[in-house]
């Protein structure tokens, strides 16, 4: 299950985003910068003395696993861990650049840095991580250990410890740094398993209509002269103003579905990449103008889900985040469930951010109805009206202390002031789905 409109960092003038508030500026009490450089009386930086130089050189090249302070894009120093290294100049034994993880931030901000960005005076001795885990494990309470375990597996709840280590090892270094999609150049966040022939590329060029990807700009330009698509392949099932939604059948448009998965994986850490896209329908949201329909995000769903899942994966592309599109996609998935005459729920496990986004949607929808009915409504009636699964309704209302268990049944407590307070906390609902503009036949009825 993917992330929806998460917090953002700056990337080439476009907004980007992901889980766990990674790109908020570090708290004032966070990482301390290294000591200021000694300066001469004329204001120029003094050269470090010979012993200092020797000490700094003695730690080079830095080993994988080394912890050190690194100058980030905000000009401040933050703690990092060296994940990987690569040689730049074969003639210089210490000429490496390093792939680092900023320990205060989400993994998507990992990047290659030059040696001059690292404060070698802050280098910590490399400790074998298995020994370190054993030692720290002895000192922590069970509650503290559980909190750390929860942090480590965020977004990967379905993986056991061995699978999680294998996943992190395989995906630890971003293979594609940037992509060009339409009029945007976008910094990527995570590893995506593109075919081996793209291993030497740091940038890929995507056709924004068919999602074919190329190594060079000239290839894209040649492709665009031949590509006759101006929108995603598939049926347009919704058009309201400049917004359109297209339903793409993974079986009929296999290459498009696979390319969409490659693209999405660049921005979703815990997405499982399905090469067999035949089993899925993709709902691609577009902004339309006289040049065509430009993808802003999508969600996918299984054609047949025994667990009543109405959404498998969801993504809003970074340049279009914070515009309400993620909330729109969630709302749209429930409108499809209503058309099917079914209740729906997102595929589990949900990431922390995914759960937060859905709780916001469920809270707004349910409390609006409770206000209108003054609480005189049952959970089953709420489920029938909204297509939200009864368990999700019950959990949402319980988390808001709006439900009590009396005489063997659940009773909804709907004080108007309490409802208003919760609605205010849930925030705005985003873009509305105009159901009158939805023209769609459920998949089971097609053909």
From TrEMBL:
The active site is at 347 (proton donor/acceptor). The keyword Plastid does not apply. One of its GO terms (molecular function) is zinc ion binding. Its EC number is 2.3.1.48. InterPro entries: Acyl_CoA_acyltransferase (IPR016181), Chromo-like_dom_sf (IPR016197), Chromo/chromo_shadow_dom (IPR000953), HAT_MYST-type (IPR002717), MYST_HAT (IPR050603), Tudor-knot (IPR025995), WH-like_DNA-bd_sf (IPR036388), Zf-MYST (IPR040706). Gene3D superfamilies: 2.30.30.140, 3.40.630.30, N-acetyl transferase-like (3.30.60.60), Winged helix-like DNA-binding domain superfamily/Winged helix DNA-binding domain (1.10.10.10). Residues 1-57 are annotated as: Disordered. Residues 171-442 form the MYST-type HAT domain. It is an enzyme of class 2 (transferase). It catalyses: L-lysyl-[protein] + acetyl-CoA = N(6)-acetyl-L-lysyl-[protein] + CoA + H(+). GO terms for cellular component: chromatin; nucleus. The keyword Transit peptide does not apply. Keywords: Acetylation, Activator, Acyltransferase, Chromatin regulator, Metal-binding, Nucleus, Transcription, Transcription regulation, Transferase, Zinc, Zinc-finger. One of its GO terms (biological process) is DNA repair. It is found in: Nucleus. Belongs to the MYST (SAS/MOZ) family. PANTHER family: HISTONE ACETYLTRANSFERASE (PTHR10615), HISTONE ACETYLTRANSFERASE KAT7 (PTHR10615:SF161). This is Histone acetyltransferase. It comes from Rhodamnia argentea.
């Amino acid at each position: 299950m993917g992330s929806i409109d998460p917090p953002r960092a700056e990337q080439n003038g476009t907004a980007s985003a992901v889980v766990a508030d990674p790109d908020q500026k570090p708290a004032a009490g966070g990482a301390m910068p290294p000591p200021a450089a000694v300066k001469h009386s004329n204001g120029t930086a003094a050269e470090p003395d010979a012993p200092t130089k020797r000490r700094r050189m003695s730690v080079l090249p830095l080993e994988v696993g080394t912890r050190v302070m690194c100058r980030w894009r905000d000009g401040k120093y933050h703690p990092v861990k060296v994940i990987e290294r690569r040689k730049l100049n074969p003639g210089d034994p210490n000429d490496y650049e390093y792939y680092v993880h900023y320990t205060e931030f989400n993994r998507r901000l990992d990047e290659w840095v030059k040696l001059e960005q690292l404060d070698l005076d802050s280098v910590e001795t490399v400790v074998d991580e298995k020994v370190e885990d054993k030692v720290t494990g002895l000192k922590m309470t069970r509650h503290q250990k559980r909190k750390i375990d929860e942090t480590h597996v965020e977004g990967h709840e379905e993986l056991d410890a061995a699978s999680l280590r294998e996943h992190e090892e395989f995906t630890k270094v971003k293979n594609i740094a940037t992509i060009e999609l339409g009029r945007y150049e976008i910094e990527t966040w995570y590893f995506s398993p593109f075919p081996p022939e793209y291993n030497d590329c740091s940038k890929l060029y995507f056709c924004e209509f068919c999602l074919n990807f190329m190594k060079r700009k000239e290839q894209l330009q040649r492709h665009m002269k031949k590509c006759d698509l101006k929108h995603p392949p598939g049926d347009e099932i919704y058009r309201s103003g400049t917004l359109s939604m297209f339903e793409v059948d993974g079986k009929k448009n296999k290459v498009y579905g696979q390319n969409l998965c490659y693209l999405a994986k660049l921005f979703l850490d815990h997405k499982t990449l399905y090469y067999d896209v035949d089993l899925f329908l993709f709902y691609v949201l577009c902004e339309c103008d006289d040049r065509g329909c430009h993808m802003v995000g999508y969600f996918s769903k299984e054609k047949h889900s025994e667990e009543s899942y109405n959404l498998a994966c969801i993504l809003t592309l970074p340049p279009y985040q914070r515009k309400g599109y993620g909330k729109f996609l969630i709302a749209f998935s429930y409108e499809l469930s209503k058309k099917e005459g079914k209740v729906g729920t997102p595929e589990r496990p949900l990431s922390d951010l995914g759960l937060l986004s859905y709780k916001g949607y469920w809270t707004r929808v349910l409390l609006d109805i409770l206000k209108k009915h003054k609480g005189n409504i049952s959970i089953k009636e709420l489920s029938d009206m909204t297509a939200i699964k009864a368990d999700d309704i019950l959990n949402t209302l319980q988390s808001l202390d709006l439900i009590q268990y009396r005489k063997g049944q659940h009773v909804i407590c709907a004080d108007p002031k309490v409802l208003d307070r919760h609605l205010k906390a849930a925030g705005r609902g985003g873009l509305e789905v105009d159901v009158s503009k939805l023209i769609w036949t459920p998949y089971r009825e097609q053909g």
